[in-house]
Amino acid sequence: MRSHGHHHTHYKVYKRRWFGLAQLVLLNIVISWDWLTFAPVSTTAAAYFDVSETAINWLSTGFLFSFVVMTPVVIWTLNRNPKESILAASVLLLIGNWIRYAGTKASGGHFGVVMFGQVITGLAQPFVLAAPTRYSDLWFTERGRVGATAISSLANPFGGALAQLINPFLGSITDMVLYISIIATVAAIPSLFIPRLPPTPPSASASIPKTAVIPSLRTISRSLPAWIVGITFATYVGLFNAYSSLVNQILYPYGFTEDEAGICGAVLIVVGLVSAAVMSPVFDRTHSYLTGIKVLCTITSIAYLCLIWAPQTRGLAAPYVLSAIIGAASFSVLPVALEYLVEITFPASPEVGSTITWALGQLLGGVFIVIMNALKDQREVNLERVREMGRGQGGSSRPPGNMYNALVFQGVIAMVAAPFPLVLGVKRLGLAHGQGRLEVDERSIEGEGVRPQE
């Protein structure tokens, strides 16, 4: 409870914050599971709907583009209250999933209906993916915000890992979509019961009224460090989304099975989650955001460059190890970059910068998928022969259907983006920032000698 005495202000955090955070995590998991529903079984889905794999790729791409369409509405909704955003996501999630199921259940599968349902679920994504910084700012202190943002943000790729790992084992395409629709329905219900606002603010910075949307946009647009962080973050998100969506098509021309490709996608995400779980508390305590961003972005870029040659080894080690490195570095830097963006744009409202940055990342992800698909070797793949030979039989380093050129494109983009975060914080370049949210909270703690209570 907030009380006044001898000019001291006591801030309190509430246990109910964990319920809202848990629901945000659950929805991010399910929505990302929706995103990659068909990616790990792309060849099977293409055969079922009698369409090309390019069409199946558009299920992922259309999902990502949907994010951009909803950005203005999401910013407005989150600025009002995170609960309204979570409720909107739940409604869209329900509608989209059952439309997808109707499309798969129709005689022979109706791809157009499935695509429509996929776009609806894509519209739900930004309402919860862009919410973590706003929610953590509203409910958590400076010693818990990175962790809260990490848990809820990284739940999204965890849902992708579940899709990569589980979907190939869910049976037919119809059964797979049905099971996911049931899960989505169950996940949406708790949104009705999450708390709207904490009774009192958790910290000094949270007690300061947030800037309205339009002034926040002006503040962010005039911040050169914010531009650097936003563009870098969006580029790596785009690369991650493209690689996650296409990993099956990258590997199967070399004889990898759908199960092995699915496990590779799961390794990418599960190792990332473990790494983020270890690193987020460290960043919460040290607040060494700049160092983390610079080191982790460099590691990610080098791993994408090395990935160009991984499928040609026709072994599990290279793709799995590099995917693990990409996942570990990408997931660890994600919440740090988001919180640093809030820090350098303070007192702009947190959801404005994070939503725009996520939208750009999703847009680039969709663009990268389209470009990488266009760079794919257009020779027809004899799937039966590839499966019969297996990856251990060797063969050409550029087999029919290979995505070598696409991986080169991915590696080049990663290396081009690498220098940008390295200049953050350099005063001579105008990339340092003034007083931020952390400084406000630390001054309050030092001046009042009071820690938040629970």
Automatic annotation (TrEMBL):
UniProt xrefs under Gene3D superfamilies: MFS general substrate transporter like domains
TM stretches of this protein: 21-49, 55-78, 85-103, 109-131, 176-194, 224-243, 263-283, 289-310, 317-336, 356-375, 403-424
Nuclease keyword on record: no
UniProt keyword terms in alphabetical order: Membrane, Transmembrane, Transmembrane helix
GO CC annotation, single: membrane
Pfam families: MFS_1 (PF07690)
Main location: membrane
Keyword Transmembrane helix belongs to the record: yes
A single GO molecular function term of this UniProt record: transmembrane transporter activity
Origin superkingdom: Eukaryota
Mode of membrane association: Multi-pass membrane protein
Location in or out of the cell: Membrane
Listed name of the protein: MFS general substrate transporter
Originating organism: Periconia macrospinosa
